[in-house]
Design a protein that fits this description.
- The chain is of the alpha/beta class.
- Helix content is 45%, strand content 15%.
- A five-stranded parallel beta sheet has the order 1-2-3-4-5. A two-stranded parallel sheet has the order 6-7.
- α8 links the parallel β6 and β7.
């Protein structure tokens, strides 16, 4: 069975255009406004990424760090992500990918987290601090739940490593175009 992510890419390919994938942090500016923002983005985006806020988002730029800080300050809890996705999916059938850090998944419990993802309608996960091959077991759990585990690739990924990552990947990978920025 094809996933919503696969359908989104196939549709873009038919239309001979790249997919537009947007990113927003869950619960920023607040728990109520985020659903309205997601629905607005969905009018133009093919796939939506929803980041779960982290207290120390070291891999993210200043805007995402600030957004995460606001969301946490506003009382964000991990259960809010699932509530947002579930309410979004009630009216809009666009793919949603969650993006965040493994520590939060670990604290929530991998199996419980994936169960909540499946129930709420999450289509994919990007876990920025769980690289291959350390992510193999978690990626297998995702696959069993029909949730894409999206691998990260970068300009410094060696050809040998790239081939191994792609062999162990679900149908979508995430290419990081820049390693860092200066302010």
């Amino acid at each position: 069975m094809k996933s919503e992510i696969q359908f989104a890419f196939e549709n873009c390919k038919k239309e001979k255009r790249p997919a537009l994938i947007t990113y927003i942090v869950a619960s920023d500016p607040d728990k109520n406004k985020i659903l309205e923002i997601l629905k607005s983005l969905a009018k133009h985006a093919d796939i939506l990424e929803l980041g779960f806020p982290h207290s120390t988002p070291i891999g993210d730029g200043g805007q995402i760090q600030t957004s995460s800080h606001r969301a946490i300050k506003n009382g964000f809890k991990m259960k809010d992500v699932f509530h947002i996705v579930k309410n979004f999916k009630k009216t809009i059938k666009k793919p949603i990918i969650l993006m965040g850090y493994y520590n939060m998944i670990f604290q929530y419990g991998e199996n419980n987290f994936l169960k909540k993802c499946k129930i709420s309608g999450v289509n994919g996960l990007i876990v920025v601090d769980l690289p291959w091959p350390e992510n193999k077991n978690f990626a297998k759990k995702c696959k069993r739940k029909s949730i894409y585990f999206i691998q990260l690739l970068s300009p410094t990924t060696t050809s040998k490593r790239l081939k191994k990552i792609i062999q162990n990947s679900h149908p979508m990978n995430y290419f990081i175009s820049m390693l860092s920025t200066t302010g």
